[in-house]
Amino acid sequence: MQTATLVEGPPSADEQRRVLLVIGGLPGSGKTTLLRRLLAQELPGVRGLDSEQVAGRLRAAGIRLPYRVLRPWVHAWHRWRVLRGIGGDTPVVVLTDPWTSPRWRATVRRKAEAAGRRVRVVLLDASPEEAAHGQVARGRTLPARAMRRHADRWAAFRQSVGEAAGLTVVDRAQADRSTLAGLLAGRPGA
């Protein structure tokens, strides 16, 4: 798969200190798995933001409602955490998000710009079938209609941005070999 980077040339010292790395892809494509692997490297100054963290906190608090009922609350809390995290002091913020909502992308980019963060976007390019298998593996599947909507939005988004619109596009195999430093430098699998 071809890759294109958001920023030409090596990042400056300031850019290295204030970065937002967005990992986008279909639900079940491996975003959370990649985030967990990157965070397991235990690099200082790195914060990961994933909606699964919010859902986990709610479960740990004893809230046992079906996820379909909790979903709006999980997403609202997660988005609040994202905007707060981007504006915070942590040098590197890693966000997982489908990244298909134009309004949300614009909001995140504006917040990152206001916070002086360089933005890197990595798209996990998994097929809807691969993503569906990923959902089964994680033990939480989307209704077929919701998954079709995500898949349609993802396909339209991928077509609109192409391969050279300031993104790094990786497949699952490349994601499995990627390090945080490699992704921040636009060199997946490095």
Q: What this model shows, in words?
A:
With 190 residues, the chain is an alpha/beta fold. The chain contains nine helices and five strands. Strands 2-3-1-4-5 form a five-stranded parallel β-sheet, sandwiched between helices. The protein is globular, with a radius of gyration of 16 Å. The protein starts with 12 loop residues before the first helix and ends in a 6-residue tail after the last helix.
Structure at a glance:
The protein has 190 residues and is an alpha/beta fold. 52% of the residues lie in helices and 14% in strands. α3 packs across α4.
Strand runs, count: 5
What's the tally of helices?
Answer: 9
Termini distance?
A: 14 Å
**If you consult CATH, what is the topology?**
Rossmann fold
N-to-C SSE string, H for helix and E for strand: HEHEHHEHEHHEHH
Q: Based on the structure given, which CATH architecture is correct?
A: 3-Layer(aba) Sandwich
Shape summary: globular
Strand content: 5-15%
Segments where pLDDT lies below 50 for 5+ residues?
A: 1-15
- Averaged pLDDT: 85
Looking at the chains present, what oligomeric state does this protein adopt?
Answer: single chain
Radius of gyration: 16 Å
What strand order characterises the main sheet? 2-3-1-4-5
Q: How would a textbook summarize the main sheet? A: 5 strands, parallel
